[in-house]
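Q: Here's a chain of 266 amino acids. Please give me its 3D structure as tokens.
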Amino acid sequence: MPRTLWFSALLVAASVLTPNSSAQQASPDSQAQIAEADAGLPDAPQAAQSSNPGQDPPNPAVTNGEQGSHGKQTKRILGIIPNFRSVSVDEKLPPIATHDKFKLMLEDSFDYSSFIYVGILSGISQAEGSYPEFRSGAPAYARYYWHSFADTLDGNLMTEFLYPVVTREDPRYYTMGRGGFAKRTGYSFSRLLITRSNRGGRTPNFSEIVGNGSAAGIASFYYPSPERTWTKTGQRWVTQVALDGFANLIKEFWPDVNSRLFHNHY
């Protein structure tokens, strides 16, 4: 599983930097925000407008500063990993339409960062000799590349567009952004099983589980014969779901890493 090498590096940085984020939340206003966040997870946000019109509006300087340094997602992680599905902390979005799901799939599959990322993964796979049938040299790299790209496209098509349209699920990842490391880690992995519906409620994540199973089955048509067995297909299925869990973990802590380690450079 070569992709775990990248995820593990970011995870280590996140685990070191995350404890500092809880120390910043010492003011009464911040404590009130935490209490509100605990009342409902980020995959079920309330309306964007204030529910207490009688109260004074929040200080724009504080709101913008917190949003800029805490929980702000970027379109790409480190400039080379697509991150278009991630939603920033407290960001209020309308229900996702079918054309928006299609757009997400295209962005995650055909953005320049996706080609770079696939190229890196292909080089790692070739160095590890993941598929001896591909042999070695430049032709082998080309085989690794197009297989990795096809895997990415298949997975995105199934989990971000086709199945979410049929099941009326929202394929976006809603960042929790608050709480301890264990709480946020548990939340990120739980999104493999629970997601948000088009209407904002919670629903089983059929797109993740069934969609990746379908993608693994499709891959059997273009991988070498030794990789087309039921066992190999099942391994690809389980591996991809596990990798998506690590991907959710990186998405959850990426705003912390980007803010504290890279000073929001990315």
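Q: Can you summarize the key feature?
A: The chain has a mean pLDDT of 82.
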